[in-house]
Design a protein that fits this description.
Blueprint: E1 4-6, E2 10-12, E3 15-18, E4 28-33, E5 39-48, E6 51-56, E7 69-76, E8 78-81, E9 89-91, E10 107-110, E11 128-129, H1 133-138, E12 149-151, H2 157-167, E13 169-170, E14 177-186, H3 188-201, E15 207-213, H4 218-237, E16 242-248, H5 250-263, H6 277-285, E17 289-290, E18 297-305, H7 314-322, E19 325-329, H8 331-335, E20 342-349, H9 365-389, H10 396-413, H11 423-434, H12 447-453, H13 456-462, H14 472-478
Parallel strand pairs: 9-15, 12-18, 12-19, 14-15, 14-16, 16-18
Antiparallel strand pairs: 1-7, 2-3, 3-6, 4-5, 4-7, 5-6, 8-10, 11-13, 17-18, 19-20
Helix pairs in contact: 2-3, 4-5, 6-7, 9-10, 9-11, 10-11, 11-13
């Protein structure tokens, strides 16, 4: 028979304190019964001897110090899982909110997950196609990778997230593929935008959604990514699906951690965040991977907004240490009307080299990626020089690079919200752009590869260039 504790010792915000509790465990779930007979859920967040601190999910309003009855449930928070989760929408705490009733659960799983044995981890190979040229060609997403998106205030990261969910796919259509999408601390408008976009695109049959709104309790915001990753691990490691997990916004999650830490009276670290923020984020990010015991994989794209676009802020700073690269969004490209505004030069995928090339994408993938990076980097140098001496004083080769930079941004980066490019289309477009440049300027590619793919005449026709290299469209715009 389970023990019930009558009365509370203290109430502080969403926290309650209970004394003389034996055999309590950190993260254990509890049930609190109010005087009127209603019940609320809580979680033990601190244990000091026989004194425990409980965070109440639904808040502490109307709780009585004398008559509240508390019962320890003897297990951590668990998420009911089954294949019925596909196509469903849940709250941040894993409760169905789509009006379709409860799911029939095959089992319930601890939302904190089970750590992957390092020996059982399989090195990530192969790629996930997002249909977005800048990502697929230059910072390829590899199965089992964690590749965050660094965004800023006012940048279209929500639209980019929707586009990735709509277009993401794996090369082998015979293998199961699913997307787990989690939103944390979003407004009703944004939540409705996500739901409506996925439903209109007709992709809900392979999507599981978790939505935590801005007015929901902060404890639910802390649970949201854990519930999402638990669903992903179930699909990947028990049902052999390749699962892409996208969750936004990690900064909202970290602010909830900071508020929660402050309410417990913990000593703050950088910018008020707790000292354990690094390990807390690692407990999420490190749940990506591939296990030798299963055929599936968990790949993560966490999205975070950098306050004041400061990449040294604790959230992007710590995220960069844990993850395997980043996709950065550019305010300058966004102002030019380019979508998606991916800032190529500070973006990278550290696992890209092991999941592209012959047998995965195409044998020339690494060559075209290296040369595009090098050429666009030189474009930035030429633009800096132009601001000093003017474009008329540039050499003929540098003028070609300026032309390449305009075309690269207009045709390669700026593909729009609806365009879904295959990896072949992306790589062919990359070669078309490189062929605008003089052949002797392409110093990152072997001559044999250039012989096969370099075609200046085709580039002139593709981009409607005149012999002197001036774009007709630009001339007409000036007139």
């Amino acid at each position: 028979m389970a023990l019930q504790y009558i009365g509370l010792d203290d109430i502080n915000g969403s926290l309650v304190v209970l004394d003389h509790v034996k055999d309590a465990h950190y993260d254990e779930m509890v049930e609190l019964q109010l005087e009127n007979g209603t019940t609320r859920s809580g979680r033990i967040v601190q244990v000091e001897g026989e004194r425990v601190v409980i965070q109440v999910f639904e808040g502490t309003n109307a709780l009585s110090l004398k008559n509240t009855r508390t019962r320890l449930l003897g297990h951590p928070m668990e998420l009911p899982v089954s294949m019925e989760m596909l196509g469903r929408v849940f709250s941040g705490a894993g409760k169905p909110i789509d009006g379709m009733g409860e799911i029939y659960a095959e089992e319930s799983k601890d939302i904190n997950g089970q750590p992957l044995n390092p020996v059982a981890r399989v090195y990530p190979r192969n790629y996930i196609n997002t249909g977005i040229s800048s990502i697929d060609a230059l910072m390829t997403l590899i199965r089992g990778q964690k590749l965050p998106i660094f965004s800023g205030s006012g940048l279209p990261h929500n639209q980019l997230a929707v586009q990735i969910v709509k277009q993401a796919q794996i090369a082998d259509k015979n293998q199961g593929f699913a997307v787990v999408f989690a939103a944390m601390g979003v407004t009703n408008d944004v939540a409705n935008y996500f739901r409506k976009s996925f439903e209109e695109a007709g992709i809900m049959d392979h999507v599981v959604m978790f939505l935590n709104l801005a007015n929901d309790p902060i404890i639910e915001r802390i649970l949201t990514p854990r519930c999402a990753l638990t669903a992903a691990e179930y699909l990947a490691f028990e049902k052999n699906y390749h699962v892409l997990v996208i969750y936004t916004d990690v900064t909202s999650y970290c602010e909830a951690i900071r508020e929660f830490s402050s309410s417990k009276g913990e000593i703050p670290s950088r910018k008020g965040y707790p000292g354990y923020l690094y390990s807390d984020l690692a407990s999420l990010y490190e749940r990506a991977g591939i296990s030798a015991d299963a055929k599936g994989s968990v790949t993560q794209i966490p999205i975070l907004t950098m306050p004041n676009n400061d990449i040294t802020h604790p959230v992007p700073d710590l995220t960069g240490y844990i993850t395997e690269g980043q996709i950065s969004l550019s305010p300058e490209l966004n102002q030019k009307g380019i979508f998606p505004p991916v800032d190529v030069l500070p973006s990278l995928s550290r696992l890209m080299k092991d999941g592209i090339g012959e047998g995965y994408t195409r044998k020339d993938h690494q060559d075209v990626a290296n040369q595009l990076f090098a050429a666009y980097a030189h474009v930035q140098e030429v633009r800096s020089l132009t601001s000093v001496i003017g474009e008329d004083e540039l050499s003929a080769t540098d003028k070609k690079f300026m032309e390449f930079g305009r075309l690269f941004e207009e045709y390669f980066l700026n593909q729009g919200f609806e365009a879904n490019r295959s990896i072949e289309e992306t790589l062919d477009l990359g070669w078309n752009l490189l062929s605008v440049l003089p052949r002797n300027a392409l110093d990152r590619v072997d001559d044999k590869v250039l012989d096969q793919f370099y075609d200046h005449d085709k580039a002139v026709r593709s981009f409607n260039l005149q012999e002197d290299g001036v774009i007709k469209e630009l001339q007409e715009a000036v007139k």
